Amino acid sequence: MNFKRKTNWIALAKGLTFITTAWLSTMPSFGQEQIPYKVPPQSIVDLIDAPQIPNIKISNDGTWMLILESPGFETVEQIAQPVLGLAGIRINPITYTTVGENSGAFRSIKIKNIKTNEEFTFEGLPQNIQLSDITWSPSETSLAFLNKTLKQTELWVADLQSRQAKKILDQVNDTFGKTFQWKNDNELLVQQIAFADQEVPKENPVPKGPIVQENLDGITPARTYQNLLGNAYDEELMAYYLSSKLVEVNKNGQAKDIGVSGILKNSSYAPNGEYLLIEKIVRPYSYLVPIQLFPTEVSILKLTDKTSTRVHTIPLADNLPISFDAVVAGPRNFSWRKDKDATLLWTAAADKGNPNENSEVRDELFEATAPFAINNATKVYAGKYRIRQVLWGTGFGIIEESWRKDRTSQLSLIDAKTNKVLRILANRKSEDTYSDPGNLLVDKKGILRGDNKGNIYTQGLGASPEGDRPFIMRWNVFSTKQDTLYKSKRNYYEEPLYYDLKETIYVFRESSTVSPNVFSIGIKSKQEKQMTHFADPYPSLQNVQKTLLSYPRKDGLKLSATLYLPENFKTGDKPLPVLIWAYPREFKTREAAGQVKGSPNRYPRLAFRSPVFWVTRGYAVLDQADMPIVGEGSNEPNDTFIQQIEDNAKALIDYVVDLGVADRSRIGVGGHSYGAFMTANLLAHTDLFAAGIARSGAYNRTLTPFGFQGESRTYWQAKDVYDKMSPFTYAPNIKKPLLLTHGMDDENSGTFPIQSERLYAAIKGHGGVVRLVLLPKEFHGYRSREGVLHTFWEQDQWLENHVKNRKDK
């Protein structure tokens, strides 16, 4: 029996929540119990059930605006569909789709002609559509998208002129790789299920022998992963479900098999359409790492005569050093050069992929034309750091490099013909958000948007001491002159959606009290026009008071947090109970750690990770409270993790108490994932809080011995750090009430549900007040409406009993 797929051995299909508890003041003491899903107060339910703010996509030519409506939370019946964990990914074996926290699906689509303001929907769409992977045709006259039914995944095409949509292909395989892409305006390349006419492999109940792993030579550490292959039967299932055949299908639904099949990691046409780059997963497989690190065979298919040339096989990456800068030795990251007809581009590590090797050059960039021979390639560039991205413009290329260890980020300009390095465009610390030039904008072909005079365009977050102010910038790479063409106006947050490179920019405009809508703005004329009129999804939050706080830590480091106050609170009123929600982040410099993050002008985006719901329950809520962990020079951030989170928390508490908004004796703290880890540590090492809420965390670092979060040292290299950072070690010290929740099917690396179970047992065993809620069918992020509502009921009960109305002040 494959235990990995039998972890839900308790029969919970009736939609019950399995709860282990120590004590709750409104209930009798009990050990464990199954209870029905509960519902939080109506003010919270209304916010959870509110319509989502639409997602907006604008075509590259600025003609069409897509208005996409998110479906909100699924029902528990929907998330109870079968899920199969294979090689580090999770799939639905009925519909052949990946399954995760965010499905990326939409339940409706509207189209607006920006030039005429006419709005319409496509005819022919099915009811209960689950729309995803929306892709423009090359001429942007059609859209292709997937529809995920309860039985299969379908490919649909919609014509913008006729306004008709129709299904063109069944049995699409959306489990792994590039599911589909446009070849031209009439044809698409699609991954279709390879073994649709064959039965699922059956597991032999009689074992053939033991499962053996060994390491005879070399150091082969691996981080903690979930849903890995466990035996030969898993390998059979992986081959059955993840294998695809490539077919070319036209808009009339006529399909032809092009003779390529296997577990396809990637496929892409050369710019001239004559070749197809194919990356296929091959043996040997691994039981230690996910499929993304399996061996990958790279080949080129010539489409005119269907001849295939194997270019290279990227080896199994199960022995990489524990470092964020570690990569496989040899060629990797194959792609087509976007500014040439058919030139293959790839990167190779000059330091054998090992960041610990002394090397002046870390990565080299190579290219080759037909017959695409690795041993007859041209070197394009030698990088001092790891090459992350290569983009091409008119006559030049820009190479993005970075080095995670010291947070260095660099942009280099090269001549497209001679490959000569013309200049370093930027060399900065990636943590320094104030100096971030933004993301380089590209057109539908992947070429940098700009002209032959060296002008390119970037879009950035615009982090600054007054908060984020997104911008569009023109950057001349030859003169290095930078012109900010548009910056979000003060007292608003305006996210650029599209810029026509001339006069008009479209933005998603919002403020702390005004929900988002799309506006067109004339850069020179300053004329504005509202393009959409979406209703406010959260009218109950309209008058909530929102402030971006800035306050000092005791060592002078500037911190920030977003404060939400009930609409009827005023200066001089009785201090409020408080909920602080935070997530620690590591920095190598104090300057970066002290930069202001976020914006006071953003309208609330409520999801299950948000604490803002509790402002409707009379709490002062502090969201995105800064929890920087700084380790400068040779010091690592985690060396002083405990002291720094305490200093961060104390600085915030002192500040809001001095403001007169917080009752020092009624402050709760919470967080999700690494924020849960932080919460447990704060309760174990400080007396600052009345209670804590820890969701889906990891609490015993010996269970993640080869690194976690931003920690690249192993347990054996930093044993003292791992032990001190593990709240499990200090479970006897956790005397303030702690609520633990965890998805029973948590797929996240390192946050196995056993982490919460063991911490619960440790606290309970030492007489602490603790409650453990295990949510069936939920992942690291909770997906079902029932599961989210119940989680919020648990949190509300916990806060009401142990923070707002605590008895032991």
Describe how the helices and strands are arranged.
Blueprint (H helix, E strand, L loop, with lengths): L15 E6 L10 E5 L5 H7 L6 E4 L5 E6 L6 H4 L4 E3 L2 E4 L4 E2 L9 E6 L5 E2 L10 E6 L5 E7 L4 E7 L4 E6 L10 E3 L4 E7 L38 H11 L1 E7 L4 E15 L5 E7 L14 E7 L4 E8 L16 E6 L7 E6 L13 E6 L9 E6 L2 E7 L3 E8 L4 E8 L5 E9 L9 E2 L14 E6 L10 E6 L5 E6 L5 E7 L4 E7 L6 E6 L5 E3 L14 E8 L5 E8 L10 E7 L2 E3 L2 H4 L26 E6 L2 E3 L10 H18 L3 E11 L1 H12 L5 E5 L23 H7 L12 E6 L10 H12 L4 E6 L9 H20 L5
Parallel strand pairs: 39-41, 39-43, 40-42, 43-44, 44-45, 45-46
Antiparallel strand pairs: 1-2, 1-46, 3-4, 4-8, 5-6, 6-7, 8-9, 10-11, 11-12, 12-13, 14-15, 15-16, 16-17, 17-18, 18-19, 19-20, 21-22, 22-23, 23-24, 25-26, 26-27, 27-28, 29-30, 30-31, 31-32, 33-34, 34-35, 35-36, 37-38, 38-41
Helix pairs in contact: 5-6
Care to describe what's here?
- With 809 residues, the protein is mostly beta strands.
- It has 9 helices and 46 strands.
- A 10-stranded mixed β-sheet has the order 2-1-46-45-44-43-39-41-38-37, with helices on both faces.
- Helix 5 (641-658) crosses helix 6.
- It starts with 15 loop residues before the first strand and ends in a 5-residue tail after the last helix.
- Mean pLDDT is 92; it is low at 1-30.
